[in-house]
Amino acid sequence: MNRLSEKIAAIAPSATIEISDEAQRMKREGIDVISLSIGEPDFATPGHITEACIDALRRGETHYAPSAGIPELRKAIAAKISRENGFPADENNTIVSCGAKNTIYEAMEAVLDPGDEVLICDPCWVSYEPCVQIAGGRAVHHPLPEPAFQVDDTLLERVSRKTKMIVVNSPSNPSGAVLNDASLRCVADICTDHDIVALSDEIYEKLVYGVEHRSLAAIGDMHERTITVNGFSKAYAMTGWRIGYAVAPLPIIRQMIKVQQHTISHPATFAMWGAVAALEGDQSCVDAMRDAFDERRRFVMAALSRMGFATAPADGAFYAFLRTGDDMNVARRWLHEARVAVTPGTAFSAPGWIRLSYAADIETLRRAMERIAQVL
Ligand SMILES: Cc1ncc(COP(=O)(O)O)c(C=O)c1O
To answer: 101 C-alpha to center of ligand 1: Å?
Structure first.
């Protein structure tokens, strides 16, 4: 069969697949593999959120909703952004989609024309480039300086006449780095001087440890050219609910709504009611999960430091990022000899590094650290 889209055929399979397939195969064979390769909180969704969704189902919220999302959720998002993120937002500046991933894809479709370039700061999350490619654009990677992974003026060297968008992700998956003010200002200046749209993926904003998260859109007039992406998966342990959102200037939101209307229509109506409860309810569940992640983070970082690894700062998200060299072989070796599954940095355009998720309980992390120490 050769009547296939060249655009989709050109998308490379993720480097995570080999290791995760092998880990799955070993587990099926009954081998006790500890998986530290997952990007999802190991907590249950807080009860009041689930209850709100069940109530919505019982009320009959099982029908089509407005394409951009239910007004109650759009209002709650706008209020949260104005209250917490330091830039103005109205409900018309919002769109609710099926997870931040779907939001990012729609943002690319809304902004890019064939051949447009998108600057992506590396190490980067695995789906940015495929989203750019599906939308017909071209990803241009910019490796951030190790090991702090902050942005500096060298980003400007990648800007061309075709640059339409710059993607930043803070706190970062996979590095755990949180962009400081100087980094955000650098991105803001480049976007403003060269009329570039920014996409700021802030899905891990609630998971910061001892540093402050700042939104790119809060710098100067950046809210006039920034698509701020966020969602419920990480902060509220709602990965399976598939609810994400964007806050952006009206012309961009209008374009995204068109994409959404003709593809997914909108996320599940009752799931959006759960998201309203998440934003408007008691936030102590978020604090409790962050505190648990912080304890695990300190435990893992101390163990890795005792083993002599150089690491990225781990200021945010729930990943340790360590320099191992030859990441594909190290990941294979840790899987087969230590029976610990991790993700090679190659998957994030950062060869030589390994991402280890600490979204697991301390006892599991302790066993994993012991096993890794043994094979070193
Ligand atoms: C940086 C980053 N952005 C976006 C997403 C997508 O999240 P969602 O579950 O809301 O689609 C993830 C999930 O792993 C992520 O790590």
So the answer is: 6
